[in-house]
Structure formats: C-alpha cells, structure tokens
Specification:
Helix content is about 75%, strand content about 0%. It is mainly α. It folds into 2 domains: about 40 residues; about 270 residues, MetI-like (MetI-like fold, Orthogonal Bundle), CATH 1.10.3720.10. It is globular. The termini are far apart.
Length: about 325
C-alpha cells in the first residue's frame, strides 16, 4: 500500500507538472509559426532581418571572428609589410598598402557602423518624438516656434549640416553620433506631430479629457502608444541613412579619426587612391555599406506594411 500511494502521488505530480512543461514548447511553436507566417508574407523583410541580425553578431563577436588585429602590419619572412596582396587563402579579402588585413578591418568596421547607427538613431528619434508630441498635442505658439525651427533645420541638406557641425566640433565618434542625431530629429518630429494631430481627433482622447486626466497622462498613456509604429519605422529606416552619413563623413575626412577602421574611411583612403591597381580595397567596403543599408531600408518598408492598418488590410 505505501508503494501504491507513493506511485499515485508521483503520477499526480507528473500529471500536474506536465501542462506547465508543455507551455514553453507550445509558446515556442506558436512564436515560430507566427515568424514563419510573417516571413512568407514579407520574404524580403525576413531576409533583411537576417542580414541585420548577422551585422549585430559580427559586430559583437568581432574580436572572435576577425582573423587578425585590424591595425596590425602583417610582415613576411623578411620582416617587410605584406602590402597590397590580392585576396588569397591567407588573406581572403587581401591587404591594404600598410599590410593590414582587409577582412579584419571590415569586421571591426561593423562595430563602428552599428554603434553610430544605433546611438544616433536612438538619440535623434527620442528628441524628434519629444518635439513632435509637444508640438502636436499643445499646438498654439509653442507649436509655431518648434515647427519654424524644424523648417529651418530641414531646409539645410543633411550632409551639409553634418559637415558644418563637424568642422566646428572636430573629429570624434561622439560628435558624429550627435551630428547624425541632429539630422534625424527634425524629420522624426514632423512625422510624429502629424500622427499626434490625427490621434487627437479620436473620441477616446475626448473621453480621457472629460474624466479629468492631465495632459501629460493623456500623452503618455493614450497618444504615445498610437504613434509607436511610425516611430519604429522611422528608426529602422534611419539606421541605414545614419550608416551612409557616417561613411560619407569618413570619406570626406571628417569621420572617426584613424586608426579606427570604418567602411567610409576604407573607401576614401586606400580604396580611392588604389582604385585602378587594387580595386578590391574599394569593392569590399562598398559592398558592406550597400548590403547593410539596403537591408535596413527593406526592413523598414516591411515593418511599415505590417504595422500600418491600411496596408495590413490589403
């Protein structure tokens, strides 16, 4: 009898625990099924997401994935730098005029592109969102002042504004992030303001005001969640644009100071000077920029289609 009681208790405990144990695989299967459905619906977006995920992995694991130090002058048996060696088994993407491994420099360049892109987009989007919320919800004179400032900033081409600010602040990674954030903020504020003006017309805003909710609570609890989708799309698209701006500044000599490896600096330095004799020095960093920027843009388009109710219904 004690044995039967023990077996019965064990069986009851297993039966009670089995549903909890099955919840995780069930949730995982549901998540995988939803991801597969979205991938089939937006195959380009899925491929772009994989490319972006690959960029993150490469940037995070750069010290592990890079075969050599990106700033190391590789020497031959006679102690001389291995300059301008074409792609080979030892150097899959070749070496630059100083004997540095191009593959390692491209892998480490992904870190700079990702840091600049994420930091500048986060700062610029947050600033633009704040300005758009304040301008769109309170309107009046405050809206007029903010929008005239936005109009003035947007009237200046982004690259010209970035060049002007960088020439004053000087070369550094922090300055590049701040400059790109300054370029992003006006456009983001304009989009958020338009969305806020549309959301204010809904009856749930009138209901919240009738119940005595403060303007700050209405903005945070009711307005901000409804403008989250446009903000997410803006941030995704601007990630690619931020990488292009950083590459352009590096190409013009106003980017991250050497010897930090960046894709734009590789194009402007060794790539431009040796375009005819060693075209691979420009081809590989150019391909890295093109693929990553295209992936971010395609991912932004896919997110817009999935999050926009009008496009989603189609």
């Amino acid at each position: 009898m004690p044995g039967l009681i023990h077996e019965s208790v064990t069986a009851d405990a297993a039966a009670a625990a089995s549903p909890r144990e099955l919840r995780v695989p069930s949730a995982l299967r549901s998540a995988c099924a939803e991801a597969w459905r979205l991938a089939r619906r937006k195959p380009l977006g899925a491929v772009s997401a994989l490319i972006v995920l690959g960029l993150v992995i490469v940037a995070v694991l750069a010290p592990v994935l890079a075969p050599r130090d990106p700033n190391l002058f590789n020497l031959n048996e006679r102690g001389l730098p291995i300059r301008m060696q074409a792609p080979s088994a030892a150097f899959p993407l070749g070496t630059d005029p100083l004997g540095r491994d191009v593959l390692s420099r491209i892998i480490y360049g992904a870190q700079v592109s990702l840091v600049v892109g994420l930091a500048s987009v986060i700062i610029g989007t947050l600033l633009g969102t704040f300005l758009g919320l304040v301008s769109g919800y309170w309107e009046g004179k405050l809206d007029h002042v903010i929008q005239r400032g936005v109009d003035t900033t947007m009237a200046i081409p982004g690259i010209v504004l970035a060049l002007a600010v960088m020439s004053v602040l000087g070369q550094s990674l922090v300055n590049i992030i701040l400059v790109i954030a300054l370029v992003i903020a006006p456009g983001a504020s304009r989009v958020v303001r338009g969305t806020v003006l549309a959301v204010k017309q809904h009856t749930f805003i009138d209901a919240a005001q009738a119940l005595g909710a403060s303007p700050g609570r209405i903005v945070v609890r009711h307005v901000l969640p409804n403008v989250f989708a446009p903000i997410l799309v803006i941030a995704t698209v601007w990630l690619g644009n931020a990488i292009v701006i950083e590459a352009a500044l590096s190409f013009l000599g106003l980017g991250t100071p050497p010897p930090t490896p960046t894709w734009g600096a590789m194009l402007s330095g060794e790539g431009r000077r040796n375009l005819e004799t060693a075209p691979y020095l420009a081809i590989f960093p150019g391909l890295a920029i093109s693929i990553v920027v295209l992936a971010f843009n395609m991912l932004g388009d896919a997110l817009r289609d999935l999050l926009d109710p009008r496009l989603r219904s189609r």
